Amino acid sequence: MSEAPSTSSVCYRHPGTETMLRCSRCEKPICPKCMNDAAVGFQCPDCVKDGRRSQRQARNAFGGSLVAGRAGYAVRTIIGLNFLVMAVSVAFGGLRAIAGAGGFFNTGGAQTRVTKAFEVLGYARYGGDWHGIAAGEWYRLVTAMFVHYGAVHLLLNMMLLWQIGSYLEGKFGPARFVALYFLAGFGGNVAVYALQEPYIPAAGASTATFGLVIGIIIVNRRLALDISSLVPLLVMNLVYTFALPGISVEGHLGGLAAGAAATVVLAYAKLPHRTAKQVIGCSILFVILVGIAIARTIQILN
User: pLDDT tens, position by position, for the chain (302 residues)?
Assistant: First the structure.
């Protein structure tokens, strides 16, 4: 006995599955596994992807990516880099790179080949050669913000970075947050180079995190949010800077000043051409900091 041929279509993604459903956008046949709820009817996976690509990306109040900012990619990456550098430092310097080499309650870590190579150092002679920024090792102005003298030094900075940085990345987006973090850290290291004796080393992410502390106050002020709970945080960090021995006052205050300037640029740039204004403002700040470092180099070498 013969059967009438089926009038059902087959799903375009699953040829073995008959279906009476069709995509409301492109009208291709789809099975229940492939259908996605839409405002009208159902859509196939391809049309859903096309719709997402054509959708305008959500932006935060300062022009950054809202979704990426909330994911915290930049903060997680920076923290990972700091822990990686500490691991390398321990590999070269042993467990005393973590603690037991002096400092506050003997919690400071010993210097290692890694800290000596990447800390802020103006100009000093060791190992038979001259080293430091004035000797051409300009990379130190960047690398020093990833180097720490012991685990306590690292953990305190990373805790502050996680708490404040996550909030600021959510407000700015990853790219603008990285610009703020870099300029604050770079500015603090330039201040160390310009104001400290050239033979005194310094390192740590606190130059950058101090910039974040003032940054969160400026951002909340810009958004008309309450800042009363944030001012004590700034005061506490300033007291910590001046009260404890071995703290680079110049680095902390330099990071504070550079972070404040960068935050003002990022938070107060207005439409139209907001991104261009932010890029230009941050670039000008970077050039000023480089100019200060060049002037200090000329002063040391002369």
Answer: 445 455 568 999 998 888 888 888 898 999 988 888 887 788 999 888 887 765 656 788 888 888 888 899 999 999 999 999 999 999 999 999 998 777 777 778 889 999 999 999 999 999 899 999 999 999 999 999 999 999 999 999 999 999 999 999 999 999 999 999 999 999 999 999 999 999 999 999 999 999 999 999 999 999 999 998 888 988 988 887 888 778 899 999 999 999 999 999 999 999 999 999 999 999 999 999 999 999 999 999 99
Only one residue has tokens 């279906």, namely 19
- Indicate the pTM of the whole model: 0.81
The backbone torsions φ and ψ at residue 22, rounded to the nearest 5 degrees and listed phi first, read -140, 150
Q: Round to whole Å and give the CA distance between 152 and 104.
A: 10
- Give me the residues paired with residue 124 across strands: 131
Closest CA to 251 of 155, 113, 147, 136: 147
Domains observed in the chain: 9-44 (no CATH), 66-301 (1.20.1540.10)
* Number of Cβ atoms within 10 Å of the Cβ of 162: 15
Q: Is the Cα torsion angle 116, 259, 172, 169 positive or negative in sign? A: positive
